[in-house]
Amino acid sequence: MRVLVNENEMFVDDKITAFAVKENVKKDADIIILNGFPIKEDYELKEGDKVTLIKRGEIPKKEELEALMVSRHTPKVHEKVKKARVAIAGLGGLGSTVALALGRIGVGYLKIIDFDVVEPSNLNRQQYFIKHIGMKKCDALKDILSEINPFIEVENIDICINDNNIKGLFEDMDIVIEAFDGPENKAMIVREVLLQTEKPKIISASGMAGYYSNNLIVSKRVNSRLYMCGDFENAAKINEGLMAPRVGIAACHEANMALRLILDENDV
Predict the structure, then answer these.
(1) Domains of the chain by residue range
(2) pLDDT-derived band at 210, boundaries 50, 70, 90
(3) How far is CA 263 from CA 110, 200, 258, 260, in A?
(4) Which of 95, 102, 113 has its CA nearest to residue 151?
(5) Tell me: the pLDDT tens digits for 104-131?
(6) 78-262: CATH number
(7) CA triplet 161, 188, 240: central angle to 5 degrees?
(8) Which pLDDT score, from 0 to 100, does residue 158 have?
(9) In which order are the strands placed within the sheet that holds 218-221?
(10) What is the CATH number of domain 2-73?
């Protein structure tokens, strides 16, 4: 019977259990993950099951690290995620948070685009640190992503996106994440991606300011290529600022929508 143990193919006897595999392969493992879920009780394995054995506090070899990082994924997910190509336009509170979420799940290729620098006022909601102040956002975020997941390809582009460079930047992407400030810029990129390209789906966000209820933020499908996330009402303005909690909720709606599209789940 064929199973995967720490992503390595093994052929084992029928009716063998997860605990028996641990005894044979990594006796000192503290954590046993079976098909994405940590188990406390023994289970009889079935053909194709995926077992991950982890010793707490142990720094794995590089060739083992990726397998352990994705051990909590639902089975069959990583194969698709690893092949996905996602662009993130704008690396502020939305874009930097989306990038970290997609990097952690192992999206194979991320194109991150912004021409701005990290400023102190960004630190209330964006995924940067004091040491990044003054750095280009695309450079700082690439450094952060390299510390999170060294197994993905990150292309960082320092450019101002406009209707003249949309096609070249995005036509070979599977998904484009809109993460701009300002309604005019948001509308421009959505419009031009839909007009100038044929392949990528686009996920846009609108309405995440203030400290209104979490539950007002939703995802919706507009058409076969456009998806929207947010409360679609509460934009940033005087007396209503942008803060990490609601911006993060909207960003994670965008990231999860991207994951669903990668897995061919087209409904919200």
Answers:
(1) 2-73, 78-262
(2) very high
(3) 17, 14, 9, 5
(4) 102
(5) 999 999 999 999 999 999 999 999 999 9
(6) 3.40.50.720
(7) 95
(8) 98
(9) 153-157, 109-113, 85-89, 175-178, 201-205, 226-230, 218-221
(10) 3.10.20
